[in-house]
Amino acid sequence: MTKIVDHIQNAKGKTLFSIEILPPMKGHGVQSLFNEIEPLMEFDPKFINVTYHREEFQYKKRENGLLEKISIKKRPGTVGICAALMNKFHVDTVPHIICGGFTKEETENALIDLQFLGIDNVLALRGDAIKSENRFAPTDGGHSYATELIEQINNMNKGKYLSSEIENAYPTDFCIGVAGYPEKHFEAPNFQTDLKYLKQKVEMGAEYIVTQMFFDNNKYFDFVARCRDAGINIPIIPGLKSLKTARQLTILPSIFHIDLPDDLVAAVEDCKNKEDIKKVGVEWAIQQSKELKERGAPCIHYYSMGKSDDVVQIAKEIF
After folding, report:
1. Which of 1, 29, 229, 282 is deepest in the core (most CB within 10 A)?
2. 4-318: which CATH number, 3.40.50.300, 3.20.20.220, 3.40.50.720, 3.30.70.1150?
3. Is 0.85 surpassed by the pTM of this model?
4. 14-18, 74-78, 148-152, 309-313: range with lowest mean pLDDT
């Protein structure tokens, strides 16, 4: 399969198209996922990101009155989904590899499985805290930061595995992507600190950046300029999402710590129904995409959240 950075280089300045999907909820077969992705294939997505969601926990009361912590998993595994998509659509897939919920050994085993399947692109993330915790807490024996995860992946690319007893270790060949935050990661005290950590990721082996969603292109352009000034020169792929509901006006800023432009908020508030809101969201994303394409974005990455109808409408106008 082709590395993301090679896709960008081979495009010779043409803006590429990519999407990100959520694994379907438990109980949904793979065909439900295929049905959502099929309409997007005519626009030639160069890669599909597949998110990973940490296990969650519930507390169940026992007969003796004590609480038992039970692990629940609501979505199928990312590795299997990536393999299914590659087999069905012959497109590169990018699994999200996260720190939370994994020991270093489990991470190594997952990466070995990916290498075996011919999946050579990964997005390395720290991951979020689980819902029952206020702050991110690493798993015992796992990584605390994305930089540590990147270092482990890069070591495997050099043939260095956790066990020094492995002889003639075969080096992996992963292309490592990382996340970037045009409006600053909410845990970073300031932009300068955030860029310092991002540069560390690049120095550890990251080869491209995918940004968190944003709704003001100036945030992206400013972020790219800040990165270049800081000596970060790898491709920076903008991530977009179209608004679908009025509720997202409060949910998205709360979850992702982003600002929504006044004009967009006003347009959504003027809508009389959900269909009108979807039209506003799609049109806003189309205008964002047109400007990003005109300004030479290497690729535009759409957060589909498992539904493709709005992305299809956008892609028809842009690609």
Report:
1. 282
2. 3.20.20.220
3. yes
4. 74-78
